[in-house]
Amino acid sequence: MWPLDPSQKEVLRFAVRCRVLTLMLQVLTRFLGSSTPILYWFPAHLLQDQEPLLRSRETVSWKPLAGDSLSGQKVPRNSIMGLLYNWKTCSLVTQCILGYFLTYWLLGLLLHCNFLPWT
């Protein structure tokens, strides 16, 4: 295998640089995602400002909408689950934020379980 001709050396250098860059980006995004709370504060701030279902939660006890509840269905104590149960009545900002985090979670679950790189 050694000595390599110049074209093989260039391909090897390119492959090594791409792998190092990929590893650095994965580690960097993991560190930033786990140690920077501002990435989660901003969507929470938008949800508190834009979503009337969350604003009314502080003053009124949470109840599912009349047409959406089944008899014997438990009322969610988690505000995010309440928003998911009432998806159609949420504002567009709330649907985008919840959709982004649910998609990120689902893609991460599927890709990580299949041994694919995911950050």
Task: Describe the structure concisely for a colleague.
This protein is an all-alpha fold. The protein is 66% helix and 0% strand.
**What sort of overall outline do the alpha carbons produce when their principal axes are compared?**
elongated
Low-confidence stretches: none
Question: What is the residue-averaged pLDDT?
Answer: 79
Strand content: under 5%
Sequence of secondary-structure elements: HHHHH
Instruction: Report the sheet with the most strands, covering strand number, pairing sense and barrel closure.
Output: none
Structure, explained:
With 119 residues, this protein is mainly alpha-helical. Helices cover 66% and strands 0% of the residues. It has helices spanning 6-35, 38-50, 52-57, 79-85, 92-113. The mean pLDDT is 79.
Topology:
Blueprint (H helix, E strand, L loop, with lengths): L5 H30 L2 H13 L1 H6 L21 H7 L6 H22 L6
List keywords for this structure.
119 residues; mainly alpha; 66% helix; 0% strand; elongated
